């Protein structure tokens, strides 16, 4: 029945006698005294602490650890910046495309209404007459050309008017009303 301990023969092959005295002598030969806690110094008999390790993880000084940490932070920032920039660019592009889709949807709806409006023959004839100047065969078209100035305005003003530029007013004042 297995007990979890190697048999006596295996123990002797590995290291022979591992008695209490042999373990203690091995501990005394170690530079730190064999344990991680306080040790008794052979010379003074006082309890001393092991020297404070400045190496930390991977036996690096604090300056080197800070440099390694800074390099890791920079590497992580650089590895995140490119995908983040791509994400933000695509998000802006998506917003632009959605607004364009909305505008085009409104235009499609307006054009569909216009199409149904022009499917009526009466409306189509009215549009052709007004916008394109079409007439039916046998009809005589008349084009009335209206004057551009409203009636009652003769265009002859002797007084200073606000329509004249400042230099004309100045010239009229200098010449005593002669000329334009």
TrEMBL record:
Biased composition (Basic and acidic residues): 1-13, 21-31, 117-133
Superkingdom of origin: Bacteria
Short name of any one Pfam family annotated for the protein: DivIC
Entries under InterPro entries matching the protein: FtsL/DivIC (IPR007060)
Region spans: Disordered: 1-58, 117-167
Name of the molecule in the record: Septum formation initiator
Organism for this UniProt entry: Actinopolyspora saharensis
């Amino acid at each position: 029945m297995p007990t979890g301990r190697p048999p006596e023969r295996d123990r002797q092959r590995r290291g022979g006698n591992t008695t209490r005295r042999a373990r203690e002598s091995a501990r005394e030969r170690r530079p730190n005294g064999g344990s991680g806690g306080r040790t008794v110094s052979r010379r003074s008999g006082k309890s001393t602490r092991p020297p404070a390790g400045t190496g930390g993880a991977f036996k690096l000084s604090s300056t080197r650890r800070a440099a390694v940490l800074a390099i890791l932070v920079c590497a992580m920032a650089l590895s995140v910046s490119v995908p983040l920039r791509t994400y933000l660019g695509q998000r802006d592009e998506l917003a632009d495309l959605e607004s364009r889709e909305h505008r085009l949807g409104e235009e499609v709806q307006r054009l569909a209404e216009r199409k149904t409006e022009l499917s009526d023959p009466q409306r189509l004839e009215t549009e052709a007459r007004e916008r394109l100047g079409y007439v039916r065969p046998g009809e005589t078209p008349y084009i009335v050309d209206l004057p551009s100035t409203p009636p009652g305005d003769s265009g002859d003003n002797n007084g200073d008017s606000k329509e004249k530029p400042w230099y004309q007013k100045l010239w009229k004042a200098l010449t005593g009303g002669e000329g334009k």
